[in-house]
From TrEMBL:
Domain Formin FH3 stretches: 3-110
GO MF terms held by the record: actin binding
Coiled-coil stretches noted in the UniProt entry, renumbered to this chain: none
Protein name: Bm12647
A single Gene Ontology CC term: actin filament
InterPro entries the UniProt entry points to: ARM-type_fold, FH3_dom, Formin_Homology_Diaphanous_sf
A biological process from GO: actin filament polymerization
Amino acid sequence: FLESCTLEAIKKQYDNFCRIKEADFAELVNRFEQIKGEYEEPDCCYSILLAGVKNTRAEGPFLSILQHLLLVTDDIGVRTEYFRLIENCISEIVLPKTCVDPDFRGKFEFTQDITHFLDTLEDGEEGRQANKRVEIATQAKNEALAK
């Protein structure tokens, strides 16, 4: 539709958008190739990330992310599922389907299907403990809402 639009102002805006979109895509492909080729080791990735945030306002949130990752359970089966879930969430944030940065002021809602993750958790002791915590939290919430 926009390719055949006869209004000059709209056509200019559309052409400008297409140029920016193509440049963004080329930059993304270039960055992906660079990352894929040179940064396949965790130590290298960490060094690059740290160098990018060192002495910036992003350093605190980066450290917080790492600290949260340290809190993931030591159970190797559950840990693997946690990291898969976290990977999916990060992918959804960094590579949104809309190709537009998220609204950083608002609430971000994930579209991940976590059924497989929950099924894995339910099979072990960690899952039973998690279910118990969810039940207690749900009960406390319901009691608080009732007051």
